[in-house]
Amino acid sequence: MDAFYASVEWLRYPQLKGLPMVIGGGRRKEDDLIGRLNAERPERTWTAADLADIPVDFFPLLRDYVGRGVITTATYAARPFGIGSAMGLMKAARLCPQAILLPVDFDEYRRYSRAFKAVIRDIAPVMEDRGVDEVYIDFTDVPGGQRESGRVLARLIQKSIADATGLTCSIGVAPNKLLAKMASEFNKPAGISIVREDDLQTLIWPLPCRKINGIGPKADARLQAHGIHTIGDLAARDQAWLVAHFGRSYGAWLHDAAWGRDARPVVTESEPVSMSRETTFDRDLHAVRDRAELGRIFTRLCEQVAGDLQRKGYVGKTIGIKLRYDDFKIATRDQTVAEPTADARRIRQLAGQCLKRVPLDKRLRLLGVRVGSLAKADAVRADDSTPHADLPLFQQAPSATEN
DNA sequence: TCTGGGGTCCTAGGACCC
DNA sequence: TCTGGGGTCCTAGGACCC
Known about the structure:
Blueprint lengths: L2 E7 L11 E4 L6 H10 L30 E4 L14 H7 L4 E3 L3 H18 L3 E3 L4 E5 L12 H15 L2 E7 L2 H8 L7 E3 L5 H5 L12 H9 L5 H6 L2 H8 L1 H11 L15 E12 L5 H22 L1 E12 L4 E12 L2 H12 L8 E13 H8 L19
Parallel strand pairs: 2-4, 7-8
Antiparallel strand pairs: 1-6, 1-7, 2-3, 5-6, 9-12, 10-11, 10-12
Helix pairs in contact: 3-4, 9-10, 11-12
The chain binds a DNA duplex through helix 2, helix 7, strand 9 and strand 11.
């Protein structure tokens, strides 16, 4: 199988090109920027179509941010300051106070996400959705997909996405998903990289282990402790040694990954496993002293997750909660019931029972509500209408011959 | 003045069944 | 008195990803 891994980049404000800028933080909507413009620069009427005309000095700066947000993404000009995704904004403000800070607008990202994926599916229908800005593509059967090792098709996809959406994207082409993902990072932004099987030693082995999708900070620290820093170091270890130190499953996977082996297919469709809503409070809350406020937030989370389920047509039978304490420790509790639900009051009731099973002596920083073991709502209703569907075989209703 | 929100998958122990 | 093995489901925690 040959795979593309494509991820998109996107800059909505051409006037910010080359400037350090981060997106992230609080609950403000992008509309606020337009509203503020109309209030403070009334010489014209500003709309969402005028984003490119917003003066650079009008954008809010990172140094003025107060709160608990993190960076969702940062421009390449911001990264030399040590700024990157998932970093706390307060910390980022110390590293680069002059950076421009934009609020996240997930509704807008989802619109662009749908658009760029539709373009890709038109060209190469075997596409796996990996989130808002990333996809895998199996182009084995796409006409012309093998020309110049896939470079021709990759260019076509880039141009089609740019024409339809104005977005740029980087693309990696390789014999499998694992290598395609790594290849896509070689030439960012807006580049195309091709990694062949023969390139393993020269292009992949010098990379740090963290570049493998699936080796995170914990596994990397353990590998480092054994003197394993690069993927080449990892490949040099016996599989048996890796299995002995990292477990049968993970150890064997580490060995395969280091040797560029990955047989996972590109998965075009999948059902959701769970849906959840969670929120980090502006200040840590106490279960007793802030009971009323916590109760309101809890109810809202249940209503939100119920709304998500209903809108997407799912019900679930495992209802759970998640707490993050002020010391950042996490506790979860869940409960499975016979009758799947998408009802806010029922979810609130079951989640409330979970809440009673968890320690509430420490201050809370985050509260979440989750519904899992999902099924399609219409499929569940169809089951209900099937007579005796839940009767065990040995308890069937008496047959006519026994009368 | 560190550290969001929405997910998936894996592990491991216990209950329970055959 | 000592003590099977499957298998599935449930629960809690944790690693990891975008």
